[in-house]
Design brief:
The chain is an alpha/beta fold. Helix content is about 35%, strand content about 25%. The chain is built from nine helices and ten strands. Strands 6-7-8-3-9-10 form a six-stranded mixed β-sheet, with helices on both faces. α3 crosses α4 and α5 runs parallel beside α6. It is globular.
């Protein structure tokens, strides 16, 4: 099997904390791949190491057959990354942002213009084309962030919580575009703690807790007949309410 992303032994330590503690990943080409885990599990740190933004203390990653560290530039040309809060230039409009991103990537201006027009249309950003990014809603920020990440037509797109806090219309626009990208042969990797989205979209999922992989497989293998949310809570250690706890709650005397 061909892997779009292959990571071995990724480690990142902050002081005493091993935020990522030896993560291996094998992400098949053309898959929709979910990285699940509770808050603070190490998902973002892992993504930043995969995408060439954060140098691991140990381990390495391959993206599209290119070793990311210590020279991440080539790998960056093969991937697009949409962080949780996309870092954009706030004094630009969406068309200007796309043009600028294309120029930074050294793309042909005619290709940038053609793709930018199409992306603005598909991402439903045409009406706000004169607005500065500083005035964008969260949904618009996520949409333009995805446009910037897709402009150079990467082989792999990596997203950190792409659907977090988005309304259903915004989420649908992003999902449709990701499905389209995947249908053309691209690989989608995204981190999320929203399990129904992971269950609905992903072929495979890895569950990370406290910086380590605790499970990996197809969604069915991980869910084992339950919904993914219940499987997830079992895997990462949720706590059931015990008999006798919170007995005062909703017990009114009048
Ligand atoms: P997740 O994305 O799963 O919520 P993160 O990768 O953001 O988790 O964080 C993993 C752990 O590393 C958390 O405990 C977080 O507080 C810590 N951490 C992340 N980045 C830094 C940093 N730059 N400095 C110190 N601690 C960090």
């Amino acid at each position: 099997m061909e892997f779009a992303v292959h990571a071995t032994g990724l480690v990142k330590t902050y002081g005493e904390l091993r935020a990522v503690d030896g993560v291996d990943l094998q992400i098949p080409q053309g898959s929709f791949y979910g990285i699940a885990g509770p808050n603070g599990a190490g998902k973002s740190t892992t993504l930043r190491m995969l995408t060439g933004l954060l140098q691991p203390d140990a381990g390495n990653a391959d993206v599209g057959g290119v070793t990311v560290w210590p020279n991440p530039l080539k790998a960056k040309s093969l991937l697009g990354f949409v962080p949780d809060n996309p870092v954009l230039f706030e004094r630009l409009t969406a068309p200007e942002m796309l043009q600028y991103a294309g120029m930074l990537r050294g793309m042909n201006p005619a290709v940038i213009a053609e793709r930018a027009t199409e992306l603005l249309h598909v991402l439903d950003l045409e009406d706000g084309r004169d607005r500065l990014i500083a005035d964008f809603s969260l949904g618009m920020l996520k949409r333009i962030g995805l446009g910037v990440a897709l402009l150079h037509n990467p082989r792999v797109i990596v997203l950190d919580e792409p659907f977090g806090a988005l309304d259903p219309v915004n989420a649908q626009v992003i999902e449709d575009l990701l499905q389209r990208f995947r249908a053309g042969g691209g690989t989608v990797v995204f981190a999320s703690h929203v399990m129904d989205v992971v269950q609905r979209l992903c072929d495979r999922v890895v569950v990370i807790a406290q910086g380590r992989v605790v499970a990996e497989g197809t969604v069915d293998e991980i869910a084992q007949g339950r919904n993914l949310q219940d499987a997830f809570v079992d895997l990462v250690g949720g706590r059931d309410l015990a008999e006798g706890e919170l007995t005062w709650l909703s017990s009114w005397s009048d």
